[in-house]
């Protein structure tokens, strides 16, 4: 697996030229580039990879392209944000997690976990055999998760969901302005959606402080 460094010069998004160099080097070394993962709204920096350019580079090697849009993919229901997915039609798979921004709730697994807490594995297995595949905690098959999404979409509709996302983004802009106005903090990455990445500014330069201590 190749982890390609990013930086402020590309707003922490993947540089297609650097991606191409790495894939070419692997191919020349006798390896076969098979998969590339582009991200739209990554967790650490809210960065957006250039999906179309990544797909073009991967196509030269016949590599599969997956787009991880778990967080920010939902935002692309807003027309003004769809450019973040430009070129997605040339990719092979996309993942979006509706529970992150489309008002979908996660499965309540706590009850099942509490029921199994402190029970030895052998006893749990005997209980499953005695009570059948459903065991003591109800059905263990796949939940009908699509129903939750359908209910939210039918209840709110596209208009209200867009209002929800735009409201979050507007609040993030207000917060970002407050951070920038405070000299104690620094915004360290572009605020593409509703995530503001910032850090506290150190009062002294750590390297200089260490150098002074070494000299003394």
Q: What is the helix fraction of residues, given as a range?
A: 40-55%
Provide the succession of SSEs: HEHEEHHHEEH
Indicate the CATH class of the domain at 8-105 and 145-155: Alpha Beta
Strand content: 5-15%
CATH superfamily of the domain at 8-105 and 145-155: Type I PLP-dependent aspartate aminotransferase-like (Major domain)
Indicate the low-confidence ranges by residue numbers.
Answer: 212-216
What structural class results from the helix and strand content? mainly alpha
Q: How many strands appear in the DSSP assignment?
A: 5
- Spatial shape: globular
Number of helices: 6
Strand order of the largest sheet: 1-2-3
Largest sheet: 3 strands, parallel
Do you know the CATH topology of the domain at 8-105 and 145-155? Aspartate Aminotransferase, domain 2
Protein name: Aromatic-L-amino-acid decarboxylase
Modified residues (N6-(pyridoxal phosphate)lysine): 100
Biased composition (Basic residues): 124-141
Keywords: Decarboxylase, Lyase, Pyridoxal phosphate
Note the main attributes of this structure.
216 residues, mainly alpha, Aspartate Aminotransferase, domain 2, three-stranded parallel beta sheet, two-stranded antiparallel sheet, 6 helices, 5 strands, 40% helix, 9% strand, disordered C terminus
